[in-house]
């Protein structure tokens, strides 16, 4: 497990951010090297690589096995009780960033007030509808509408095999319990990668689902057409967290890297790519005054997320016929 012991930054990035973020970090590292500063950074995008790394997290026993900075999407193993008890509760990580004004998304309580996790950007899930395939049903306006029986086997969410998007499942479970998970599963025809959702949503195959829960990044890139509608749900776009863990007691050079990552240059690139940031100096643009649905720290801290995910995923899969 010593492969990360000399790593200053390990970034497990959503696919749309991998290339621009890698370019920014490469330029930053090159500039620092010219100043005599060596930084070891690794940017990873493939979801399979993410899953492989998450499996390794449970095997970490010493803080030195973990990179100085780790960026990861979703409520993954870093939020599970095992990692929390072994590292978070002992104070090994600390959010080193302080702004002079209220952060973006402060109104939804996105930032970790305990300052263990640094919540610096987010991925937003919205609804895309091909109205030609609704079979007489109404266009959904809220995520809660997706539980209606009129959408039976006419929805797609992110997933494959035994994996189902934890952001979707946890939010539906929090609001609607096991009954909500059952109703959602009965209405979901298949789990897909977002890129595949775009193809299916715009296809001429009437056997493809009508409704897709997908990241806004992919939804906004669907070319305008009369039969396709992008819905920003009335109950808020689902917030898929992107967090950063920063070790306490890092060197000045690593702290400078952290500040660069949450700074304005990276923030503007992320926001323009449909991943708005917490930095209040970065304008939200189209993301200003929108509704957001964040799972919340009370739920995260008061539940064993691994146990909950195992239970609701198993329950969800039992209705996938």
TrEMBL record:
Query: Which Gene3D superfamilies does the UniProt entry name for this protein?
Result: Periplasmic binding protein-like II
Q: Which domain of life is it from?
A: Bacteria
Keywords for the protein's UniProt record, in alphabetical order: Signal
Q: Name one Pfam family in it.
A: SBP_bac_6
Designated name of the protein: Extracellular solute-binding protein
């Amino acid at each position: 497990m010593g492969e990360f012991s000399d790593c200053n930054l390990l970034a497990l990035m959503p696919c749309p951010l991998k290339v621009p973020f890698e370019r920014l970090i490469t330029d930053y590292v090159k500039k620092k090297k010219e100043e005599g500063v060596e930084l070891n950074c690794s940017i990873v995008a493939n979801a399979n690589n993410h899953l492989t790394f998450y499996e390794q997290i449970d095997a970490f026993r010493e803080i030195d096995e973990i990179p100085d900075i780790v960026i990861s999407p979703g409520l993954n193993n870093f939020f599970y009780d095992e990692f929390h008890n072994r590292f978070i509760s002992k104070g090994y990580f600390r959010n080193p960033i302080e702004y002079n004004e209220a952060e973006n998304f402060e109104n939804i309580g996105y930032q970790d007030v305990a300052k263990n996790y640094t919540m610096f950007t987010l991925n937003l899930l919205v609804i895309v509808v091909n109205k030609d395939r609704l079979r007489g049903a109404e266009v959904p306006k809220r995520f809660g509408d997706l539980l209606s029986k009129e959408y039976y086997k006419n929805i797609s969410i992110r997933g494959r095999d035994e994996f189902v998007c934890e952001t979707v499942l946890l939010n539906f479970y929090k609001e609607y319990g096991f009954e909500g998970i059952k109703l959602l599963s009965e209405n979901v025809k298949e789990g897909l990668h977002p890129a595949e959702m775009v193809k299916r949503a715009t296809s001429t195959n009437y056997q493809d689902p009508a409704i897709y829960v997908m990241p806004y990044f992919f939804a906004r890139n669907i070319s305008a057409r009369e039969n396709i509608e992008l819905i920003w749900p009335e109950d808020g776009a689902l917030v898929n967290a992107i967090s950063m863990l920063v070790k306490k007691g890092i060197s000045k050079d690593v702290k400078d890297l952290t500040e660069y990552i949450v700074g304005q240059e990276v923030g503007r690139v992320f926001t323009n790519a449909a991943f708005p940031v917490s930095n209040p100096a970065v304008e939200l643009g189209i993301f200003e005054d929108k509704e957001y649905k964040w799972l919340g720290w009370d739920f995260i801290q008061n539940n064993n997320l691994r146990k909950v995910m195992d239970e609701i995923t198993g329950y969800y899969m039992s209705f996938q016929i």
